[in-house]
Amino acid sequence: MGSLMALDRIGGYDVVRPLGSGGMGTVYFAISPTADRVALKVIKKELLADSGIRERFAAEVESLKLVYGSRVARLEDADATGDPAWLAVEYVPGATLRQHVDAKGPLSLPLAAMVGAMLADGLVRVHQVGLLHRDLKPQNIILGPDGPKLIDFGLAVLIDREHYLTEAGALVGTPAYMSPEQVRGERDLTPAVDIYGLAATLVFALTGHGLYPPTNSWNLLLRITDPTDLPDLSGVPAELVPLLGAMLAHDPTARPGLDDVRARLLAVATASSGRRALDLRSEVAALTYDGETELLVPPDLTDPTEDPEDLPLVEEAGTVEVPEPTPTKVDPERPASPGPDVTWLVEKIRRQYARRSTL
């Protein structure tokens, strides 16, 4: 099997393979020079054509550097001014919540409530630094080895309402999980948009369906913004109907805050299962993490750069041979002079030998 060459090198990362694409750009599985795994998102050029939007993206990246916590995929590096603009975040192995429900069916009440409480923790960290997720949906939640993690928080700022629809009327992004105020294109959004998105995501996790039946783009947008057209909560367990209904209130000021949401979700999770939060947390990871989805650093990934100072070594049958030096003539009439100091050369060969994992 030949060596696997990187597809490209962006910002010092070797791009190995695409992971997916969406309204904001393409995501790649990439490797840093020290073999860290990242999800590298390359932003669509047309989104940053306007200097004002690029400045907004740069400001958003600065805020992303402040987000922390076990429920969010941390930012590793970014270049908001580059061509292309990109950002690299922690690679989280596992399936998305959407993939899990599609493949294995809805989550049980205790697990869904626990997942919701853990995601609320992540949203608290995002909101603490003045960011909003704006695009919370099952596709932006990875069910990792330690439970759910949020990805793509803060990036929906790049897409305004005019980008939701293409000229042909096809959706870019997922308005099905957006709050009415987002669909209307309101500028002064509040953390309540993420409360709505979390509720819509939990409805899907519990039932496998969205808030509104599949329909064409314009009809969906009209339904979301109609205060008399209530979301479909059929199939949601009775224990969560009051909470999710409040989180989906048409008026953002009527939605509960994150602390209240987290406390009520935890209460339902523990009461419906008779188990502690610690036990439920372990069960979430055990039942939702799919280790087969994990991508590893390719063992034969070829580094396209070479160290010009590396000495040529000949490897045969587990040995390292150093080429013999060319002999020189010695004049017996002249006094012998001290030979050159080759200590540095010996040490370099030793280091090379030590790092040859094949030997």
Beta strand count? 13
CA-to-CA gap between the ends?
20 Å
N to C succession of SSEs? EEEEEHEEEHHEEHHHHHHEEEH
What CATH calls the topology of the largest domain is Transferase(Phosphotransferase), domain 1
CATH homology superfamily of the largest domain: Transferase(Phosphotransferase) domain 1
Task: Provide a compact summary of the structure.
By secondary structure, the chain is of the alpha+beta class. The protein is built from 10 helices and 13 strands.
Descriptors:
359 residues, alpha+beta, Transferase(Phosphotransferase), domain 1, six-stranded antiparallel sheet, three-stranded antiparallel sheet, disordered N terminus
Report on this structure.
The protein is 33% helix and 16% strand. The chain is built from ten helices and 13 strands. It has two domains: 4-293, Transferase(Phosphotransferase), domain 1, CATH 1.10.510; 308-354, no CATH class. It has helices spanning 51-64, 97-104, 109-128, 180-183, 192-207, 217-225, 241-247, 258-273, 277-288, 343-354; strands at residues 4-5, 8-10, 13-21, 25-31, 37-43, 75-79, 86-90, 95-96, 141-144, 147-150, 301-302, 314-316, 319-321. The strands form four sheets. It has a six-stranded antiparallel beta sheet with strand order 2-3-4-5-7-6, covered by helices on one side. Strands 8-9-10 form a three-stranded antiparallel beta sheet. With 359 residues, the chain is of the alpha+beta class. Residues 1-5, 161-173, 303-337 and 353-359 have low confidence and may be disordered. It starts with a strand and ends in a 5-residue tail after the last helix.
